[in-house]
Amino acid sequence: MSTGEAGHTGPVLGIESTAHTASVGIVEDGARVLGLASDMYRPPAGGIHPREAANHHVELLPRLVRQALDAAHVDPAEIEAVAFAQGPGLGPCLRAGATVARMLSLAWSKPLVPVNHCVAHVEIARVLSGLEDPLLLYASGGNTQVIAYGRGRYRVLGETLDIGIGNFLDKLWIELGGTFPGGPALELEARQGSELVELPYSVHGMDVAFSGMLTAAITYHRRGVARPDLAYSVESTAYAMLTEITERALAHRRRDAVVLGGGVACNERLRTMVRTMVEERGGTMFAPPRAMCVDNGAMIAWTGRMAHRAGVSVPVESSAVEPRQRTDLVPTPWRAG
Ligand code: ATP
Ligand code: FE2
Description:
Elements: E1 2-3, E2 12-16, E3 21-28, E4 32-40, H1 50-72, E5 81-87, H2 91-108, E6 112-116, H3 117-129, E7 135-139, E8 144-150, E9 153-159, H4 165-175, H5 182-190, E10 203-204, E11 207-208, H6 211-222, H7 227-253, E12 257-261, H8 268-280, E13 284-286, H9 297-309, E14 312-313
Parallel strand pairs: 2-5, 5-6, 7-12, 12-13
Antiparallel strand pairs: 1-14, 2-3, 3-4, 7-8, 8-9, 10-11
Helix pairs in contact: 1-2, 3-9, 4-5, 4-6, 5-7, 6-7, 7-8
Bound molecules: adenosine-5'-triphosphate and fe (ii) ion.
């Protein structure tokens, strides 16, 4: 990885393809989104099959690049760099996006900038919040982490010990007879519910776990508990767990600002519960617009732009994807000082 001079400045194009969503964003100063084109792969039944999702991305990405450029009224010559999500994610999906990014980088003679998907969720939420150094609750499909910046890295203070909250909601919804994605559908269903059934509440310090709740909820469903009540109970329990670990992290770190990020941060109930907790402590809570919570190319472009300005780029030959790349192992030189 090079950390040399940044050179030409201009809008950055970012490609997201880590899981279900293929997306291309073009972003300039202040995270202003000039163009954004996305398409989510929706399996007809069951969960996501990595190869089928990757085929979807391969098929759609060239068109999404065109759409984003047209929407932004930007010529490739004006682009500063091409950023791509290097990981974490599904190998075949990551490779689809990385291949398109490498091609564009070579064809346009632009630097290639690798971006960590989780850090991108965090950075787009942070810039939109206007808060310099908040605590972050990153709640998405594959990840559930409470994060704070410290000494050159984003530090994970607490996280899920098994599955991500979004994957838990998606799996449950499919078990209840629905289709992917489950989170938004479960949110609507929960609004019709009112009876609280007791589910395993699994908080261990600043960590959480969801697999026990998944098994219990499926058992309740088989015993005939109404779907709206089950959805209501699952949201109440799971989001209370997230609110509790966020509060614990706030107290430990002596912080007063929380920013939400990731697809599950779209959820109104989660937003309200975290906001109430933070405001009762006299602090501030910010949640980005929903389009910036779910996977999108703009967050990759924005983070890539900061990374490139800090001198980060990689030659095509060493731009391999990293399906297991962790939030706390990637350097964030743009935050130095
Ligand atoms: P990760 O960022 O961990 O790699 P991901 O990229 O698969 O996960 P995101 O796009 O960040 O996922 O988030 C998708 C998840 O958000 C899905 O699990 C989806 O069900 C969930 N989600 C989206 N909207 C809502 C909502 N309104 N309520 C709850 N969950 C939601
Ligand atoms: Fe994501």
